[in-house]
Amino acid sequence: MDVDLNIDIFFDKVRTNGRVLHENAIYLTVRKEYNKSSKGKPPKGEERKKISMKKIMTGALVMSVMLAGGALAEGMNPGTYESTFRGYNADIRVKVAVCADRIESVEVAEQAESQNIGAKACEILPERIVNAQSIGVDSVSGATITSAAIKAAVRDALNQAGADIDVYSAVPEKTETKKTVELSTDVVVIGTGIAGESAAVTAQESGAQVILLEKLDIIGGSTNASGGAVMGVDSPLNDDGVDDTKEWADFIYDRDERHENVSYEKIKFVADVSGENIKWLMEKGYDPVLGYGGNSPVMWSHRPNDGTGKQLAHGGWKIINALNDAFISGGGTLMVATPATKLLTDETGKVVGVEAESEDTVYTIRAKGGVILACGGFDDNEELIQKYAPKSDGLFNIGANAGDDGDAITLAEAVGAEIISTGYLMPSWPTLHRCELNGLNAFGLKNTANFIYVNEKMERYMNESEGMEGQKFKMIVDGSTQFYMVMDSTALDGAYVEQLESCVEKGLAFKGETLEEAAQQAGVDAQTLENTVTHWNEMAEAGADTDFGNEKVNPLNTAPYYIIPDSKGVTGSFGGVHINMDAQVLRADGTAIEGLYAAGECTNGDFYYRDYICGGSSLAMGMAFGRVAGENTAQNAIQ
């Protein structure tokens, strides 16, 4: 039996012979088989690589024996046991206290996971395990890899204690018959990223009662995984007394080729209110510092402060915490792990509420002022990618929110909404993704190594010195689904060599004493690659890159050679529900669906074509129209 397997999201539970096997326990075994067959290339739609179920189950059985350790004692040896497993960012150390017949406590003693994502799972999952007395509980949605590490560490600690792993791996029974609850409020907001939280707080400040729904266990959506930068002009930090809104709007609009779907009117509106919105966000506790972003000519990017006046690298969680604290302190109702499943309409087609469903309850929620869709993109939904973003098929989903299943599209389409599509997903930084998961410092390597970039034809496609921002766009324009970083050993120090050798061993990178040998290992066209490198070396000898203008032209002639698959990453989606300037969702004939509003990534079709302008443009857009939607639904409710 064969299974269609997306190896990069293979982190779900696998059950064999009644035993729950943890995803970390079999991941490396399965990934090794995948890399042998795929040469590290990403699967494409119907062409996604298939891995034999026999190989998966064989790996699973082997790993289960290793993890179980043969411990089948009736009782445990009381005490506290420790174990460490690799999380998303670094090792996670867990302490487990047990008595003879019970898990007394689970504590994550050391971790460096992302704030509001993996770090939140370190709070939620230990309590979940203790309450259920089992590691067979659901992982924390939105933090699957971190959950995997915690469960694996607890399993190992229980093994040390002499536990019967079968007993403590039992999957808790779920409620078969759910209770039904009816609620009424002024406004329902679906999604807790910057658009949803801004909508909820604004509606609340306008006098409305608000229920905020989140499908995952963790709030924050894609904003959590972002850098936390918000683009804006004429804010408290960059108001120079000159109206810069047109300059900013033109920069965004011109950068993305002025596609017919992209609305200059909406972009200009975002620019007009950006300074006021950043001031509003700062009043909620957000503390930014100015910086550049998206190759912008001016410091428009408001980035989170690390506490010392410098930019915090990954601070989107600070925005979410500031807004959510304001929402809760203002009396708002937050319901996590409660996805909206249906929009409710009356006989005229007006949206009057939602149905939502938690683990044990089905909710019918009436919303007097309307429903706001702010539940992210569709980059985690293969069917919708094929339908609305076929030109981005085969990209690695590396930075997108786990909840980006296209719920906004599904819900809105069911009530007649128009979906506008660009054919593309939102590209992230180019990434040596598999090697990064294996511990390679890709960012540092790209700044250090002697290399060239080639596409799937083994031809150069850009000036390598442009950096990742330029590379991202050049990848899109080139159209190839797979790219490669080709390097020699000239500038590699011991640390990088060690990291690369580890990747080679696992089939994530490819090595040869000659270019031909490295190409054969990678499964690429050796002759074309040799011709490309020969031409590069000739230009290096002449001292000028006459093809693309790279000023750093050094010959590639020092063995061994390495070839690493370099991929267009996905951090979100373009396309989505069509809205007007009031954030109302539109039908194909241009009429508004009464009672239905949208903001954020699910409306990206109005703002982007195929290039994402980094540095906070998306968060600025989400906040701007989230606030518009919040204000309008509140006014509907209190009229």
Please describe what this structure looks like.
With 639 residues, the protein is an alpha+beta fold. It has four domains: 1-66, no CATH class; 69-173, Sufe protein. Chain: A, CATH 3.90.1010; 181-227 and 309-425 and 573-638, FAD/NAD(P)-binding domain, CATH 3.50.50; 433-567, Flavocytochrome C3, Chain A, domain 1 (Alpha-Beta Complex), CATH 3.90.700.10. Helices cover 35% and strands 21% of the residues. The protein is built from 18 helices and 27 strands. The strands form eight sheets. Strands 8, 9, 13, 14, 15, 16, 26 and 27 form an eight-stranded mixed sheet that branches. Strands 20-21-23-22 form a four-stranded antiparallel sheet. Helix 5 (194-205) packs parallel to helix 18 (617-638), helix 8 packs across helix 18 and helix 16 (515-522) packs across helix 17 (526-542). The chain starts with a strand and ends with a helix. Mean pLDDT is 84; it is low at 1-73.
Offer a concise description of the structure.
35% of the residues lie in helices and 21% in strands. By secondary structure, the protein is of the alpha+beta class.
